[in-house]
C-alpha cells in the first residue's frame, strides 16, 4: 500500500484543505489502495494552540485588516527567501520529525507554506529521504514556503515557474504548471438549464462568508435585470441579512459541501462575484465564468487580486457604482468580453498539464521511482 501525507494548516475550512482533498481524490479514484492522510502540524503539536490561532486569525483580519496586511507583507512576503524562522524550528521541528517517523509515508504533499518550511530544512540536511511536493494555493509564492530540497513544485502559472527558476535556481523539470488544482467535478461540462431573460450571477464570500456582500446587494431592487444567488457559507448572520432584504431577485444559499452541487451552480449562472481566493477563482476560470471581485481579504488575497488584474482575468467592482449597472455593462461590451475570453484561453493553455489524470499519474510515478531507488540502495548495502 502507498501512503501519502498531506499537510495543510489549521483545521478551519480553507483552500489549503480543499486542494489537499482534491489531490487525494484524484489519486484514490484511480487507485483505491493508496492511503491519503491529512495532518495539521499545528493541532498535532497542540490542539488548544491551534484553536487560539484560528480564532485570533479570523478576528484579526475582521477587526484589524490593515494591520494584518502590514504584518503579512513584512513577515511573509518581502521576497526574502533567506528568511529564518528559528523560533518556529524550536517549537515544531521535533513534532514534524515524529510524524514522519511514525507515519512512514511514501510521499508528502504540502498545501501550505508552514509545513513546507520545516520539510525544506530537513531535506536540505538530508534528514528526510521521502519526496516532497509543494502545491501552491495562491497565484504567488510567499517567503514561508520551503524551496531548498523540495523535490517538485506544482505552480499556478508560467510566471511563477519562471520566478522559481530564475530567483531560486530550481530546475525546469522540478516545476509543473498545473494551475491551482480543483475538484474533478469542475472538469464536467453540464448542460445549462433553460435560459431566462435575466443574467444569473453567483455571489461568493468563501466558506465563512467574509466580505462586504450584504452592503453590495442591499441597494438592489426587484426590477433588476440580474438575479443573484448568494453563497453565505457558514455565516448565518449573512444568510439572515440577505433573507431580510426580501428581494425577489436575491437568493441566499447556505453552506454547500457538495462539489456536484457547486458544479451545477457554476454551470447555470452567467458570471460569479467573489473574493480573489485561489481555489474559487480557479474553479470559475475552469468553468469559463466572467469573474467580478467584490472585496479582498488583507494579505494573500490582495496580492492575488493584483496578479489576476494584470492577467486580465477579473473585473473589480466599484463600491460607489450600481452593482447591476456594472454587471450589465460588462455583458453589453463585446470588446471587454472578447478581451477576457482571450486572456482566459491563454491561461487555460498554460495550465493544461494540470489535469486530474496527469497530476495523479505524476504523483504515482514519483512514488514508484522513489521506491525503486530505495530498493536499489538497499541492494547495494547488502552486496
TrEMBL record:
- Provide GO CC annotations from the record: membrane
Q: Which GO terms describe its molecular function?
A: hexosyltransferase activity
Q: Which residues cross the membrane?
A: none
In what residue span(s) does the Glycosyl transferase family 28 C-terminal domain sit? Answer: 201-291
Enzyme Commission number(s) of this protein: 2.4.1.315
What is this protein's name? Processive diacylglycerol beta-glucosyltransferase
The lineage is: Bacteria, Bacillati, Bacillota, Bacilli, Bacillales
Catalytic EC class:
transferase
| InterPro entries linked | Diacylglyc_glucosyltr_N (IPR009695), Glyco_trans_28_C (IPR007235), Glycosyltransf_28_UgtP (IPR050519)
Amino acid at each position: 500500500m502507498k501512503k501519502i501525507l498531506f499537510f495543510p494548516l489549521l483545521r478551519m475550512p480553507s483552500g489549503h484543505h480543499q486542494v489537499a482533498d482534491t489531490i487525494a481524490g484524484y489519486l484514490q479514484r484511480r487507485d483505491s489502495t493508496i492511503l491519503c492522510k491529512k495532518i495539521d502540524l499545528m493541532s498535532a503539536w497542540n490542539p488548544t494552540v491551534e484553536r487560539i490561532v484560528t480564532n485570533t486569525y479570523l478576528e484579526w483580519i475582521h477587526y484589524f485588516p490593515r494591520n494584518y496586511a502590514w504584518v503579512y507583507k513584512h513577515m511573509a512576503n518581502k521576497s526574502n527567501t533567506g528568511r529564518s524562522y528559528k523560533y518556529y524550528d524550536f517549537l515544531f521541528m521535533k513534532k514534524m520529525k515524529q510524524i514522519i517517523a511514525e507515519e512512514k509515508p511514501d510521499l508528502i504533499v504540502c498545501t501550505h507554506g508552514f509545513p513546507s518550511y520545516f520539510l525544506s530544512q530537513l531535506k536540505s540536511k538530508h534528514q528526510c529521504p521521502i519526496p516532497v511536493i509543494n502545491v501552491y494555493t495562491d497565484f504567488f509564492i510567499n517567503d514561508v514556503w520551503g524551496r531548498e530540497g523540495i523535490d517538485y513544485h506544482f505552480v499556478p502559472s508560467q510566471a511563477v515557474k519562471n520566478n522559481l527558476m530564475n530567483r531560486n535556481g530550481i530546475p525546469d523539470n522540478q516545476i509543473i504548471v498545473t494551475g491551482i488544482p480543483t475538484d474533478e467535478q469542475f472538469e464536467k461540462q453540464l448542460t445549462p438549464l433553460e435560459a431566462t431573460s435575466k443574467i444569473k450571477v453567483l455571489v461568493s464570500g468563501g466558506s465563512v462568508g467574509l466580505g462586504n456582500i450584504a452592503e453590495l446587494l442591499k441597494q438592489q431592487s426587484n426590477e433588476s435585470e440580474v438575479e443573484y444567488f448568494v453563497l453565505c457559507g457558514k455565516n448565518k448572520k449573512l444568510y439572515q441579512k440577505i433573507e431580510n432584504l426580501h428581494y425577489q431577485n436575491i437568493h441566499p444559499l447556505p453552506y454547500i459541501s457538495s462539489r456536484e452541487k457547486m458544479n451545477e451552480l457554476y454551470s447555470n449562472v452567467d458570471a460569479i462575484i467573489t473574493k480573489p481566493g485561489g481555489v474559487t477563482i480557479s474553479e470559475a476560470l475552469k468553468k469559463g465564468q466572467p469573474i467580478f471581485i467584490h472585496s479582498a481579504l488583507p494579505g494573500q488575497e490582495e496580492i492575488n487580486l493584483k496578479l489576476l488584474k494584470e492577467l486580465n482575468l477579473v473585473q473589480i467592482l466599484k463600491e460607489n457604482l450600481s452593482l447591476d449597472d456594472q454587471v450589465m455593462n460588462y455583458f453589453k461590451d463585446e470588446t471587454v468580453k472578447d478581451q477576457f475570453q482571450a486572456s482566459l484561453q491563454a491561461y487555460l493553455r498554460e495550465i493544461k498539464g494540470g489535469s486530474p489524470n496527469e497530476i495523479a499519474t505524476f504523483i504515482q510515478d514519483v512514488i514508484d521511482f522513489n521506491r525503486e531507488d530505495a530498493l536499489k540502495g538497499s541492494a547495494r548495502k547488502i552486496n
